[in-house]
Amino acid sequence: MTANFSCFVVMPFADSFAQVYKKGIEKACHDLNVKCERVDEQIYQGRILDHVYQQIIAADLIIADMTGNNPNVSHEVGCADVLGKDMILITQSTEDIPFDVATFHHVRYEPDLPGLAKLKKELARRIAFYKDPQNSSGLTGRWILAIFNPSATTSKRPYKIDGYMISQRGNSLVGRIERIVGEGASCREYTFSGYTDGQAIVYSFWSKRVDVNSWGCCSLDRAADGRYKGYYFPPQGKAVPGIAQCSEQITLLRADSALKALGSNIGTNVRSAIKAWI
């Protein structure tokens, strides 16, 4: 476990955010024995911006409340992003997330007491993930990716199946993909690299063959049943079902439970191919 793990919080200092900090952010940190600091609570000499930069550099994790699209918060998040710091973004409205950091996974919350209790719980889960990255290897192993035809919006039968061999270390994911069923099954092998915060997975993949010009990106979110569901999206941004032709819906399943999860949605030949790969 990382010793003296610390979070630096950037957020508006208005009175309306006092309980967000005390009951949501600070409480989540204290429950995990994590140092939690905000610049307005500190005594220091010199320019405030210089002190903020020093705190961002020193912190293990940045928690930023993007509510209201506050320019100071946006500036500090930009600095943290340039420095490659781990960040958790929270907001009362997703419309307040600037375009430049819109791809970061964020937590939406309500500012009432039940909402702050939920925020504390979700922050605690995510902070624990960053605090103990070496113990976060839950995705390591074999997985099955079911890919559904974007033109068959009501079909529950995947038209392509990929096998994933994933290695997770901390937040980072690397591995290999093999096409099990579907177009190009005899030659489709990919390398991939990605990131997870424990709830979402974002990764890019590219063909291992120099004569095959094939690559892409995917974004998935963890569902309540442990599956990861999402979409393939093209370079210009996340695909929206029914808008982008290539917005294939995808579901990532653990290999040892994939056959049961897919059930009657796959035929005998597909089931045999998955068994052979597993």
Largest sheet: 8 strands, antiparallel, barrel
Ranges where pLDDT stays below 50 over 5 or more residues in a row are: 235-245
Shape: elongated
Mean pLDDT: 83
The number of distinct β-strands equals 13
Termini Cα gap? 33 Å
Any guess at the CATH architecture of the largest domain? Beta Barrel
CATH fold descriptor of the largest domain: Lipocalin
Helix-strand layout with pairing:
Elements: E1 6-10, H1 18-31, E2 35-38, H2 48-58, E3 61-65, H3 71-82, E4 86-91, E5 106-108, H4 113-131, E6 141-148, E7 160-169, E8 172-181, E9 189-196, E10 200-207, E11 215-222, E12 228-233, E13 249-254, H5 255-262, H6 268-277
Helix pairs in contact: 1-4
Entry keywords:
278 residues, Rossmann fold, Lipocalin, 2 domains, elongated
Description of the structure:
The longest helix has 19 residues. The two termini are 33 Å apart. The chain is of the alpha/beta class. Helix 1 runs parallel beside helix 4. The protein folds into 2 domains: 130 residues, Rossmann fold (3-Layer(aba) Sandwich); 137 residues, Lipocalin. It has an 8-stranded antiparallel β-barrel. It contains 6 helices and 13 strands.
Brief rundown of the structure:
The protein is an alpha/beta fold and 278 residues long. It is built from 6 helices and 13 strands. 27% of the residues lie in helices and 31% in strands.
